Backbone:
């Protein structure tokens, strides 16, 4: 195999066609609301990690578990990249009527792109947090929050960090 781009071979590269059962697909006995998505810092150096927090509230009548998913989207890159990439997820048990604040780290390696070698590029990125993929259509209401951040500096190989 010589073509490692995976274009047209995985759900991440299908263009506008959504997968039948995307990651995180399923039902819950409760409902959840996301709010207060905070990225820190909102502008970071090329090799820095991003801290993320989000508040998850169980708005239903039953105790429940939610799989909180974080996806990253490159706004502009020098090579083809997925529409979005799963960079973190965590199962959170939240009692009915309660809320919890979840913390994540998105490390620099998760922003790396392949172009004959792994390297990092500056630019604008969007981070999505929610109980499903961005743009996913479900029968059960679920929301996905988004926030932008920028990476500053010059492009460099990942091993240089």
Residues:
């Amino acid at each position: 195999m010589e073509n490692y781009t995976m274009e047209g071979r995985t759900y991440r590269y299908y263009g506008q066609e959504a997968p039948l059962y995307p990651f995180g697909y399923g039902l819950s006995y409760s409902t959840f609301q996301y709010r207060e998505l905070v990225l820190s810092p909102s502008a970071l150096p090329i090799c820095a990690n991003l801290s993320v927090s989000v508040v998850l509230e169980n708005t239903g009548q039953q105790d429940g578990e939610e799989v909180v998913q974080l996806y990253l989207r490159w706004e502009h890159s020098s090579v083809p990249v997925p529409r979005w990439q799963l960079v973190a997820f965590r199962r959170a048990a939240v009692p009915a009527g309660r809320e919890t604040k979840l913390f994540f780290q998105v490390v620099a390696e998760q922003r790396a792109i392949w172009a004959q070698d792994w390297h990092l590029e500056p630019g604008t990125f969007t981070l999505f947090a929610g109980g499903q993929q961005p743009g996913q259509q479900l029968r059960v209401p679920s929301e996905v929050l988004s926030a932008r951040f920028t990476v500053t500096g010059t492009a460099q190989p990942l091993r240089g960090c």
Notes: The CA atoms of residues 143 and 161 lie 35 Å apart. The chain has one domain: 37-160. The chain has a mean pLDDT of 85. The radius of gyration is 17 Å.
